[in-house]
Design goal:
The complex is a heterodimer.
Chain A lengths: L5 H8 L12 H35 L5 H7 L3 H9 L7 H33 L9 H22 L7 H4 L1 H23 L3 H32 L2
Helix pairs in contact in A: 1-6, 2-5, 2-6, 2-9, 5-6, 5-9, 6-8, 8-9
Chain B lengths: L5 H18 L11 H6 L8 H9 L3 H7 L1 H23 L10 H21 L2
Helix pairs in contact in B: 1-3, 1-5, 3-4, 4-5
The chains are: A mainly alpha, B mainly alpha.
């Protein structure tokens, strides 16, 4: 019996040879990526939204450990006043239909985003000598993200009570590996050394990761505080 | 229009993102701050960027330039780049290739390093 995602597991285990086959056309590569990733991302987003709404409501009720407020240096009275002024959360039934629109857009947006920044990183590291163009980066990202979508599936384990805490570190390490994994696809399709492709994803983190980290961590922080 | 103006569309999304960032300002004080600076005592290359984005979100460009001159400058140039992209798309021209030049690549690295040095020197 052939298990689902067998090919993805094999590619992740042997990234050096995962992209040795001739490249597919861009259209089919993007379609395959979307067909694998969007359902998993929808499942993940639906669960995340449900948990986030619960956390937000708890935050509005002021359900936060005093130790966290002390660590933040926030005054409990000021904090209570601040969170009680927040608007009520929408019902889950109002939220999930929007996910059907937002998640596919987010998947395609993430693919484009990774392609732009990894392409820039690869250029900065001299990995575009073959002059195969941005289209090649789009193709490489689509191929790699189809395989890396497996991480979205495994990431669902992080929501399981207790097990989620146990798996937090391994899942973070998996995330880091899946990030770097795109570098193998970039290197193979652009015909450069693997280290340049992998380093390009690192440059991506340096160039942009820090920029958005503040805003994203702010939003995550708001959710986590009340979880 | 013969081609998709991707950069112009990205500019539009950036503008929307800046408005959303401004909405988050009331709770931005709860952020723990830059981990790199906390560990080393030295600003990272993007220290001040969140405050810069928040300032632009409320259209305070003076303060934005104070917190991160390079990012504020780049954001200020976005409308010009978007206009160029719209013209390119209208004419049906492809995007130009990135120059295959070591000097160009090193220049970009130098600009990034200079941005970082500037933030460190100013103690942001």
């Amino acid at each position: 019996m052939r298990l689902p995602f067998t090919a993805s597991f094999r590619a992740l285990a042997r990234p050096g040879s995962a992209f040795a086959a001739p490249p597919p056309a861009l259209g089919p590569a993007v379609r395959d990526m979307a067909l694998v990733w969007i359902p998993l991302a929808l499942l993940n987003a639906a669960w995340t939204a449900w948990r986030a709404l619960q956390a937000y409501d708890a935050l509005r009720r002021g359900a936060i450990a005093p130790g966290i407020l002390g660590w933040l240096g926030a005054d409990p009275a000021d904090f209570q006043e601040l969170v009680s002024a927040l608007p009520a959360s929408p019902a889950y039934g109002q939220v999930w239909p929007w996910l059907l629109l937002a998640v596919p857009l987010g998947v395609l947006g993430t693919w484009l985003h990774h392609a732009v920044w990894d392409h820039a990183g690869l250029w900065l590291l001299g990995g575009l000598k073959e002059r195969r163009g941005f289209r090649t980066s789009l193709l490489a990202e689509a191929e790699a993200l189809r395989i890396a979508a497996l991480g979205t599936l495994l990431g669902l384990l992080g929501f399981v009570p207790v097990l989620g805490w146990v798996l937090a570190l391994p899942l973070m390490l998996l995330d880091a590996y899946l990030w770097l994994f795109r570098g193998f696809a970039l290197a193979a399709r652009h015909g450069c050394e693997p280290w340049r492709g992998i380093a390009a994803t690192g440059v991506h983190v340096l160039l942009l990761g820090c920029c958005v980290l503040g805003l994203v961590s702010l939003m995550l922080f708001m959710v986590r505080m009340a979880a | 229009m013969k081609r998709v103006p991707w950069v112009a569309l990205a500019t539009l999304l950036t503008a929307l993102g800046l408005r959303v960032a401004a909405l988050l300002e009331p709770v931005s004080g709860l952020l723990p701050g830059c981990a790199f600076k906390r560990l080393t005592g030295v600003a990272c290359a993007t220290c001040g960027l969140t405050r810069c984005v928040m300032a632009i979100g409320r259209w305070d460009w003076r303060e934005a330039f104070h917190w991160h001159p390079a990012a504020a400058g780049a954001l200020a140039l976005l409308p010009i780049v978007a206009a160029w992209d719209l013209r390119r798309a209208w004419r049906g021209d492809p995007y130009p290739e990135l120059p295959d030049s070591r000097a160009a690549r090193l220049s970009v690295w130098a600009i990034l390093a200079a941005m970082w040095a500037l933030q460190v020197a100013r103690g942001i």
